[in-house]
Known about the structure:
By secondary structure, the chain is an alpha/beta fold. 46% of the residues lie in helices and 14% in strands. It has two domains: 10-255, TIM Barrel, CATH 3.20.20; 264-360, no CATH class.
Amino acid sequence: MPASRVPDVLHIGPYALPNALFVAPMAGVTDRPFRQLCKRLGAGYAVSEMVTSRKDLWDSLKTSRRANHEGEPGPIAVQIAGTDADMMAEAALYNVQRGAQIIDINMGCPAKKVCNKWAGSALMQNEALAESIAAAVVQACAPHGVPVTLKMRTGWCAQHKNAVQLARRFEVVGIQMLTVHGRTREQGYKGEAEYDTVAAVKQAVRIPVVANGDITSPEKALAVLQATGADALMIGRAAQGRPWIFREVAHYLATGTHLAPPLVEEVRQLLLEHLQDHYSLYGQATGVRSARKHIAWYVRELPGGEPLRRHINTLEDCQAQYQAVDDYFVQLGQRMQRLPPSSTLDTLMESELDCLAEVAA
Ligand SMILES: Cc1cc2nc3c(=O)[nH]c(=O)nc-3n(C[C@H](O)[C@H](O)[C@H](O)COP(=O)(O)O)c2cc1C
């Protein structure tokens, strides 16, 4: 197996990152508890969920939760989204004053809420505006020594892939790292990510380029690195309920061999700690609901996972939810020491699945 070309140490401005495997920003998912967990399990860097540039929303509970970085290992990177250069510069400063050490500009999000306001990946359609936003944010951050990075897609649509042109413009105005998700805005999350455009961006600029999109396994991570020559990889959806994917990828890139799947007991402890941290950030009433998706992701491929998910959705009390998860993993641990590798899940015997379904009922 060829050694990976991913650098041991990657710098963003003055910050040396422990490795070049990043957690993708995912609104509603990559909150502080989840980011911390990913970092503990091998991610070298995490960008927080996007914070709007709209001042009227800065005092909202949602925004203040998103700006929570208590105990998070640095550097603290905050993503901002918006459509107006001055407002974006102000939003960057607001976050710098609250502890952001790196500002990331969102030009990758296809969500309607963002695109209707001409933000996120919609900005890629207007190169002059996109460049002026990047320049304004860089200028606002420079006196504070805060590097600015930017995340984008390959372009607006298949006929208009302008990531390379934009990347050159962003580099000139002082953007210090670029992440490229290998889809167009038009694709949303459909189709497959392509990496030729990411490779072309890497060739076109001297700043670090991060490849993102559909990295779901250690093998895919290596293939994307080889196809793009990227300086780092960013993983989003495949880390949902599987935050240990970072150490699995890191191990594979370093050695060409696979780590054993995690012990059921380790996953039990990780998830229970994740839940405690989640409840303490969101409070009991909100936390019990917002934790459901995380639990569902952890167990989605596991025997009895679907009945557990349905059961969890009926519970409105954190303690009951926590207990149900604990019971499920204790019983799973009596049947298997380690999580099954994904490829063998399909072959689990029906009786085994039935048995575990009872646990969740
Ligand atoms: C639920 C969800 C929320 C997302 N929120 C953001 C966001 O706030 N900012 C952003 O730049 N990208 C966001 N993305 C895009 C991801 O960062 C990433 O680019 C995309 O999921 C592709 O990577 P993946 O295939 O590894 O998931 C989001 C994606 C998902 C699934």
